[in-house]
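If it is no trouble, can you show me the amino acids of a protein and the tokens describing how it folds?
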Amino acid sequence: MVQIIDQNWKSHIQYLEQLRQVIGLRSYGQRDPLVEYKKEAFLLFENLLGKLKTDLVTMLLNLKIIQKEEEDNSQKNVKENLKSIAKSKIGRNEPCPCGSGKKYKHCCGAL
């Protein structure tokens, strides 16, 4: 969520810089540039808030919930496997029984 807010805020700041560069042309049309800048900046801010709302709602609707019970069961199975393997001698250069893909001496057997 913070990443979406940050990305939209950066683009909002860029829009304000562009607006500041072209707002001087409004004085040729006999309009006060400061008042015009305030109006346009407020519209840009409203657009920013609307875009943030739609982006955040879209992200929340696309989230998938992972149940913690499955993780707990798999962790219990790994612990049980490690306890049963711990009874037998494991060589330091053999693959680690936890399934990390590392050698035992660099994973669970590290000193």
Q: What stands out?
A: Residues 73 and 91 are 28 Å apart (CA to CA).
